[in-house]
Amino acid sequence: MPTYIVLLGPPGVGKGTQARILAEKTGLKHVSSGDLFRENLKNQTELGQLAKSYMDKGELVPDDVTINMIKARISQPDCEAGAILDGFPRTPAQADALEVMLKDFNGAVNTVPFITAAEEILVERAGGRWTCRAQGHIYHEKFNPPKQVGVCDIDGSEVYQRDDDKVEMVAKRIRVYIEQTMPLVEYYRGAGVLAEIDGAQAVDNVTQSLLSALDKSSKAK
Ligand code: AP5
Ligand code: MG
Fold first, then answer.
1. CB distance 114 to ligand 1 below 6 Å
2. What pLDDT does residue 220 have?
3. 129 is annotated as an active-site residue
4. How far is Cα 80 from Cα 16, in angstroms, rounded to an integer?
5. Is the pTM of this model over 0.85?
6. Nearest Cα to 202, choosing from 117, 138, 110?
């Protein structure tokens, strides 16, 4: 049976950072809705243009296009063993749609690590983030700077600041998260798959907490 892990948590808490590490450790594919939208934008697709009009305002892209995009991605052969979902689902309608689509793959959401940190930490992390243009590798000017200023360590491409990482935009994204995504905490707690993770810790310690949560949930099955 395929394994699906949903990383739940506010903007800037470290979902993308941890998803990349977990993907390496587990062999599961990292599927980030935000990265997929940014990739579409880079490739100047219609979906990319549509997503940008919402992302620039810190609002969520409509459920139907987001659900279709994720469905197409996790149907690819490289997700046969499952996936680490980062940033999806983000609304109850997306969570319902995910449940239905995973049934088609004979799977279900196995574990939902819910990563949290205080708002000032989120603003500091998102505000200092640098993202690699080619593949979305994640850096932070203070906590994890690239070896050479402005250049990705892994693929040598330019690193840039996301438009939606300005302080006022991060605050808006946090509000949207509280209103539209927080209901999923109770949804997944009720399903018995939620694992609370202290995201204020250093990157390595968050990874350790995540790995022990995944281990615990696989033993409980
Ligand atoms: P998305 O790209 O998903 O952004 P987000 O959820 O707001 O989350 P972030 O990517 O900002 O943060 P993160 O938790 O991944 O943190 P990261 O690891 O980078 O979505 C962007 C937009 O796309 C949305 O606003 C919406 O418009 C649209 N969208 C996406 N999904 C959607 C959906 N399902 N439905 C509708 N619309 C959707 O880390 C942040 C920084 O902190 C980095 O600099 C990192 O180096 C640093 N850091 C990480 N961990 C630590 C640590 N432990 N200690 C110190 N620094 C750390
Ligand atoms: Mg991210």
1. no
2. 79
3. yes
4. 21
5. yes
6. 117
